[in-house]
Amino acid sequence: MGLLDEYLLSFITFFPLATGVGLLATSALASLRGSAGLPAPLWRAVALGSTTLTFLLSLRLFTAFDPTRTGFQFTEHVPWIPDYGINYFVAIDGISLLMVVLTTFLVPIVLLASWNDIERSVRTYVFFMLFLETGMLGAFVSLNLFAFYLFWELMLIPMYFIIGIWGGPRRIYAAVKFFLFTMFGSMLMLVAVLVVYYLSYEQTGRLNFDLVAPPGSQLPALLDTQIPLTGEAVWWRTQFWLFAAFGLAFAIKVPMVPFHTWLPDAHVEAPTAGSVILAGVLLKMGTYGFLRFGLPLFPAAAVEFTPWIVGLALVGILYGSLVAMVQSDVKKLVAYSSVAHLGFVMLGIFCFNTQGVSGSVLQMVNHGVSTGALFVLVGMLYERRHTRQISDFGGLAKPMPVYAAFFGIVVMSSIGLPMLNGFVGEFLILLGAFLAHPLAAVLATLGVVLAAVYMLWMYRRVMFGPVEISENRSLVDLGVREKVVMLAMLIPIFWIGVHPETFLRRIEPSVIELLRQVEERRAVGPTPGVEMEAEAEPAEPPPPAAAEPTEVEEPP
Amino acid sequence: MSASVMLFYAFSIMAVISALGMILNVRNTVAAAMSLVVTMVALAGIYVLLGAHLIAVIQIIVYAGAIVVLFLFVVMLLNLRSDEFAPSRQRWLKIFATALGVVVLAQLLRLLEGSLPVTPPLPEGYGGYRQLGIALYTDYILVVEMVALLLLAAIVGALILAKRKID
Amino acid sequence: MVSGATHSELLRWIPLLPLITAAFHGVMLGVLRRPASRWLTIGMSCGSVLLSFLISCMAFASLLSLPPDARLLVDELYTWIGAGVGNHAFSSEVAFRLDPLSAVMALVVTGVGSLIHIYSVGYMADDHREDKGFQRFFCYLNLFTFSMLLLVLADNLVLMFVGWEGVGLCSYLLIGFWYSDRWNAYCGTKAFVVNRIGDFGVLVGIFLLFAALADAGTPAFSFLDIERNFEAIAGATLQVPAWLPWGPEWGLVNVVALCFFLGAVGKSAQIPLYVWLPDAMAGPTPVSALIHAATMVTAGVYLVCRLSFLYAAAPEASAVVAWVGALTALVAATIAVAQTDIKKVLAYSTVSQLGYMFLAAGCGAYDAAIFHLGTHAFFKALLFLGAGAVILAMHHEQEIGKMGGLARRIPRTHMVFLIGVLAIIGCPGFAGFFSKDSILVAAWASHVPGHAWLWRIGVGTAVLTAFYMFRLHFLVFYGKCRAPAELRASIADPAKVVIYPLYVLAFFATVGGLAGLPQAYGEYIPILGPVENSNSLANFLAPVLSLPLHDVPHSTEYRLGAIAVAAALLGTLVAWWLYVKRTDLPGRLAHSFSWVHRLLLNKYYVDEVYDAALVRPLVTLSDRVLFRGIDAGLIDKWGVNGTARTVRALAANGLKYVQSGLAQGYLFVMMLGTIAIVAYLVN
Amino acid sequence: MITPPELHLTAVLPIVIVAIGSMAILMGEVFLSRASTVLGRKATDIWVGSVLGFASMAFLALALYAAWGAFVGGTTQVFNASHPLLQLDRFSALISAVVALASLLSIALSISYLAELRINHGEYYALILLATTGMMLMVTAIDLLTVFLGLELMSVPIYVLAGFDRRKLRSNESALKYFLIGSFASALLLYGMALLYGTCGGTSFAEIRAGLDPSNPMALIGVGLVIVGFAFKISSVPFHQWTPDVYEGAPSAVTAFMSVTVKTAAFAALLRLLLLAFGSLEASLTNVLWVIAALSVVVGNVMAVIQDNVKRLLAYSSIAHAGYLLIGFVAGTPAGYSAVVFYLIVYMFMNLGAFAVVVALANHGKDCERIESFAGLARSRPGLAALMTLFMVSLTGIPGTAGFMAKFTIFAAAVNAGVIWLTILGVLMSVVSVYYYLRIPVLMYMREPGEEAPRMEIATGEALVLIVCAVAVLFLGIFPNDGSIYFFGEIPLLDWARESLEPLFAS
Amino acid sequence: MLPLDHVIGLSAILFVLGVIGAVTRRNLIVILMSIELMLNAVNLAFVGFNRAWPGSSAAPQLDGQVFVLVVICVAAAEVAVGLGIVIAMFRNRDSVNIEEVSLLKW
């Protein structure tokens, strides 16, 4: 492997941020010399070029990825804060591969899509987008729990600003709500992370945040940690609560009902680019988190939680669809449809079988592309009419036939029309669900019906019928740039729909490996006290005042 | 009961009464200051009884002589008339605080009674200016220097705050 | 059961050709905005479908050249979806399969499809209602042809489902083709959504079937594999909660069969999901002919027949199929009696005829179902195209109240339309007679509970069919012309490109019945004399259908046939009496039985009932309870913002006042804190 | 016969340097204000102030260097071996260095600010140096006497500094409240010290450690009162109420100075006291600290939510941060204490940075402290807005900034010590903190500018402070331990924090 | 020999009186005096305790008395600064009522 391949992941991850910092530096230098710096369009162009290059690099990653090998590839492991077991440890498997490609795909798309959308503080916006991309990529490729957490929170900041600065009238409320919700979950997750960290320390005698040991090393791995199922207090069940804390953080991000209310607000208020990235990538953080951390670290608890999560996923599917149905704002409708779609993803993950989980991973990509495309489309409309109320439209197919065609295809993809991407994911998820939770699967299948209801109803009200509002009569159809954006988004929509094996082939070995781990670690006896003592041979004595992790600190 | 003990009680009663006088005297700030002087003098007396002669002297000189005078000086300077205060905004709080103080005092006295160290006989030369002086200029030399700095800070500070006009 | 498969790379081109054309149109229109020239459009669209038809014929020929139990051509392209390991390995190939059943379907689809494509050239020629409508129409039509071919040629259920959904999509697009009319768009959406309800059943059926097969250790999922491994799951049961009826164990096969039937009900517009089909008439008439009469709506029947092995093993489900079919036939026929829109009448008649097909399938006579499917495709397409010709002639007037006396003005249309009517009412000699007869015989002979009643319903429906079809015919073509005066002059037979396809169809509507001539009649073929195995269609289909053996004596068959003919005659006579002889009667009848009339005119208020019972409550629930109540109210207002408010209130209404700004208050708090700490430490 | 004591002057070198500096500044002020030119320029107030400011910075730099040398040298030096009052060990050296650095930065921040507010008096620098002397004394002390003396030497100048803008009612009030409550707390502390002296017979930490009898109520009262005295200085609930009032009223530069240095010094002294003197009372003290920490975290964060004044908001946030720091104490492990040290250093940078922005915005003798006056700042002052955002983000504890690393180390130590519930409370309250910290970026970036025009130029000193703090916040956020900066060499801050505590645990 | 418990008791009484004075009186100057009273109480305690720990004649222990000296100086410094603040305040506000000093709150 050449140098590029060896550090490919790092290149991909940090190239956008490096571009952003470089642009900032030029502007800082320019301001020192009293000039205005590079013009905003040039910033945009540079950012577009850089993110496109990132995407091409990730395509290289996609092709160079060896689907026949299980385990992680493109590993880079550099000590960072070794005293705390914090390492720069990045690697990908099939699951994160797809997420990386999805992310790098969407960012240039949204940059292009929001070319004219963002008018003020363009440079800040460009910088935040680049920063955001690095944050998202970092979270997807990090195998060090600490680094993951770092990226996980880091990407909140640019998103927060993107919503808050360039958003709609209630943008501040939405941005703050988004931030608070996510922080609430992730803060509890931090505590859980620390507990896991401590358990690992207690058992191995070494401080460590690496999820798995890098290949060929003797370093400890969090996945080897025995996380006890029970604790000292009767009601204290370590693994249970740890999973709950991780799960809450992820569930908020997903979002699962009833932690979803930040999503509609954030989506409605965010600018197009923000909505696309939010729906396309950020929501995937939650489901990805379940896959990467929630399930393998706490398999027994995950299984125990399954009925609840499946239940909530179902509620999400049905509830999201029903609520989407009655929305009067297109973006809000799409937002609630995300709740429903992500409900499918959660359902698939908690099937614990290959079909379900593979379907979920694929559906994550699908949702990213389809819902992203929907938001781009809504954004195009908003650019023209500065409204998103369904009632302000009607008959748009007449003045904007190309737009209507694209919108139609994306809507169909979103409601899972076969040979478009949405179907494959939903189908596999439901198939998996039928093998695991038949009744839930039947109910979830109802969601497919409801999806058609709300999407087509919306489509009908926006696109069909007579043009009654005079502003709509003179709407301009899509321009070349917008067509390019949409065509680019149609490529994965059709590709995944027609030949999903390209992706499934890469997902499946990782999913099988993941499920094997879960099964294996579940099987390892849940009798913590005895086993832990037998295995724990700390290299150095635990800290003097260290109490049991499960000890309940009683206030006096 | 020896004379010293009787004197002690006399001084104690004097101190307490004058202290009470200080905190109960609502009208007259000058009277309060004078009560404070009385307390301090009484305490100086007790210091003598406790064998801390130098401290007693300094108590009189510094406290009664300097500090309280400073108080009086300020009172005069500001020409205060304390009876023009509006009704208290925190009357109940203050009543409660007073009551609480009394309860705490009772508890404090109860607790302190049994836990005091035993008093040994006085060694030679205890409390004299010589021993204290040696201590101050050997072991505590740094403390003396630092107290000097503190006083410097106070002087500078008082100047900055109270000078009518700073150039 | 078919033993082995022959590979044939020809098959893929049958569906792909229309797809390529559709894609070409789509790119030209949707992306480039450069509409192709009219002739290029016509040439590509009609040419591709015709070519498909030719290839189908070739494939059909090569199929015929194989021995009967090896008649299976397969064309595998690639693995579409594959996931899972071991016994749960799911794999769905993109593969096409041509067996007798799909061959018949493919021929019908491409054949009728070609004719309708050609017809559309004329029908859509004057369409200026929508921008660039012409090419768009053919784009959709080609896409539909592709989907329908995919549906019938698919080698496995999942791929079939692709076509299944695809035709739904095209139906949606074509119903709402004139989208500027809000009603059309509504109808399109309604069709899609109702179809989706059926799709729900198909999906569940697929999943259940796969789950059962996987449990049995044979997860292979092509039709051939399923049929081979079917024995393993034939006796399987589903555990359900005991409080459910027939709990705690349901026969898996029955459940699966019912699930698929739900799909069929949706697609083929049976009770209770038939409501979309009449509304689907909002689309252009060729669409109604192709999609909503000849092909797509019969997909349900095809599905049931395709899975005949499943239904044969599921008697209870089959009974449901038969009864639903019979009731639909009857109910739709009653509604058709009162309709005044020419296409609506035909739509309800389609529903009714589809009911016949399900009646047949439910009774195990899958061959009869397919037979009727084929003949129905011809005569119903004929009728629709004829109606289209009428509508064209009337300048897009569909109300039969404004027609009348057209026989003289458009004689050619009148003739072909009459042939269609005769075929549908089962006039002996016409195609419909034989197929309907086979169905009635099958119903009579079957072992479905209440089969005698099924037969009676069938006959009753036949009476009604004859009545409403002739009512339509008489009202349109006879009597006085009720069209506005300024229109009358211009009423004339449409162009050749419109009429010629009608002739072809009329020909098949007349002689098509011979393909499945029941043996009882085969004995007495006029010229040829007795023919062995006259029911060539049934024989041809036999290897792929699980046909039960119901031997009906020929004498019974004649008797039943005679009753059917009598029924048709009765209906015809009543129609003649009411609409030719005593034209004042219908109005008076409608007046004196006004509630019945209103009930029928308003289709038993089913739409309204659905609206009131399902749609409105659901919307209200979603809006008032879920969205405003739970989402905005409970979670957001109380939960999320409530927490924020609580925190703020804690500060603003509580802690704030401790921070009074008065220093002595602070001292007091300190005093309290000190006391607390000291007290804790001392104790 | 009087034996002259054996004095190790190196042990008090930083203190002495700063003390001499303070006197030199006072002298310099007298002479310079009489002179007609300063360094070749006309002796305007501003020039005198600048020269004095730079001189005091030089002294502080020297003290920093000395303290740093002591830290690197690593030996423990006792000033007067026969009667140990001061002990310059690695811990006190590190904290002295930090305090010196913080004072240095505060002075850099003040020079132009004083001119802006027209309170440009040389005594200001002298008072800061005196306060710094007191802090160094306090953290070097190993005797209650020196602790108290240091505390007073620290407090008295700050009382004055708080009221330094004496024409302003708010500044008066600030000084008055701080003084009043501070001297009340001092009295409580003193009484506690007296009781401790009474039980143990001595005032040095060693004697107290030896003589402390956990069953003796007098000793316990003494310990309690001493804790209260420090709880006041670190502004933890319920001894926090002065903090917002004083921070709000005092001139911003003073607030910046006192919010970081006092907290650092007081925490360090408390840490020494707990480790060296009150070791035997660990369990019950931990419970007391648990409650104080919990209350501080809750009250600080909740009250900050409703604030409309940035300084007041930061005051409440400092109460909350005191709570977080106390979590490290509750953990009570070496990891916990070293996390506290790390946190203190990080807190210094981020809080100073935040105040530096407030100071840099002060215009026409008025502090830019109303939260609305930040509206639209991103438009008019993009650089300052970005920096403010950085500091707010760091105070919130978002990863990638030093604030997160600090919180992380504290929470990690707490979890390792089994202090789960307090940690959970802490993290939940940091969610609340998100709200108010991010309000400022919200205003800066997402609102239109108000009528108040901010100052458009930035002074060199302010720029210096901002850059140093921003770099530190970012750098320590990403490389808390193993980073190295060109010229400065390796900066293993976490290691330093851990190593600094070794002498305290050794004894 | 004086009874130490009574000495300390007196100190406690004076201290608490000082506290009560500081918390209840509204005149700033009187509050300052109350704080002085508290410091005096502390001094008394120190002197009293030093009586209990006098050391030997060879090595007299005068910690308490030295402490008292420091406290006296501190008290002086505090009074100086405190009165300075009061004067500065009085100039601006013309009052020494502490309850009027509540500009900064909440």
Write a short abstract of this structure.
The complex is a heteropentamer of chains A (556), B (167), C (683), D (507) and E (106). With 683 residues, chain C is mainly alpha-helical.
Describe the structure.
The complex is a heteropentamer of chains A (556), B (167), C (683), D (507) and E (106). By secondary structure, chain A is mostly helical. Chain A has helices spanning 3-6, 8-32, 40-64, 94-113, 122-141, 145-154, 156-166, 171-204, 238-253, 262-269, 272-297, 299-325, 330-349, 354-385, 401-414, 421-436, 438-463, 470-473, 480-498, 501-523, 528-535; strands at residues 73-81, 86-92. With 167 residues, chain B is an all-alpha fold. Chain B has 6 helices and no strands. The mean pLDDT of chain B is 85. With 106 residues, chain E is an all-alpha fold. The longest helix of chain E has 31 residues, at 63-93. Chain E is elongated and about 55 Å long. Chains in contact: A-C, A-D, B-C, B-D, B-E, C-D, C-E, D-E. At the B-E interface, helix 1, helix 2, helix 3, helix 4 and helix 5 of B face helix 1, helix 2 and helix 3 of E.
List keywords for this structure.
heteropentamer, D: 507 residues, mainly alpha, two-stranded antiparallel ribbon, 3% strand, E: 106 residues, 73% helix, elongated
Q: What secondary-structure arrangement, pairings included, does this model have?
A:
The complex is a heteropentamer of chains A (about 550), B (about 170), C (about 675), D (about 500) and E (about 110).
Chain A: H1 3-6, H2 8-32, H3 40-64, E1 73-81, E2 86-92, H4 94-113, H5 122-141, H6 145-154, H7 156-166, H8 171-204, H9 238-253, H10 262-269, H11 272-297, H12 299-325, H13 330-349, H14 354-385, H15 401-414, H16 421-436, H17 438-463, H18 470-473, H19 480-498, H20 501-523, H21 528-535
Antiparallel strand pairs in A: 1-2
Helix pairs in contact in A: 2-3, 2-5, 3-4, 3-5, 4-5, 4-11, 4-14, 4-19, 4-20, 5-6, 5-7, 6-8, 7-8, 8-9, 8-10, 9-11, 9-12, 10-11, 10-13, 11-12, 11-13, 11-14, 11-20, 12-13, 12-17, 13-14, 13-16, 13-17, 14-15, 14-16, 14-19, 14-20, 15-17, 15-19, 16-17, 16-19
Chain C: E1 6-7, H1 13-32, H2 38-64, E2 73-83, E3 90-98, H3 100-123, H4 133-153, H5 157-175, H6 182-215, H7 223-234, E4 237-239, E5 249-251, H8 252-267, H9 276-279, H10 285-294, H11 299-306, H12 308-312, H13 315-338, H14 342-362, H15 366-393, H16 406-409, H17 411-425, H18 431-445, H19 451-477, H20 485-488, H21 496-511, H22 519-522, H23 536-541, H24 554-581, H25 585-592, H26 594-601, H27 606-658, H28 663-682
Parallel strand pairs in C: 1-2
Antiparallel strand pairs in C: 2-3, 4-5
Helix pairs in contact in C: 1-2, 1-4, 2-3, 2-4, 3-4, 3-10, 3-15, 3-21, 4-5, 5-6, 5-10, 6-8, 8-11, 8-13, 10-15, 11-15, 13-14, 13-19, 13-26, 14-15, 14-18, 14-19, 15-17, 15-18, 15-21, 17-19, 17-21, 18-19, 18-24, 19-24, 25-26
Chain D: H1 13-34, E1 37-38, E2 41-42, H2 45-73, E3 77-78, E4 87-88, H3 90-117, H4 123-140, H5 144-162, H6 169-200, H7 205-211, H8 217-233, H9 242-249, H10 252-277, H11 282-305, H12 310-331, H13 334-361, H14 377-380, H15 382-396, H16 402-416, H17 420-446, H18 460-478, E5 483-485, E6 489-491, H19 493-506
Antiparallel strand pairs in D: 1-2, 3-4, 5-6
Helix pairs in contact in D: 1-2, 1-4, 2-3, 3-4, 3-10, 3-13, 3-18, 3-19, 4-5, 4-10, 5-6, 5-10, 6-7, 6-8, 6-9, 9-10, 9-12, 10-12, 10-13, 11-12, 11-17, 12-13, 12-16, 12-17, 13-15, 13-16, 13-18, 13-19, 15-17, 15-18, 16-18
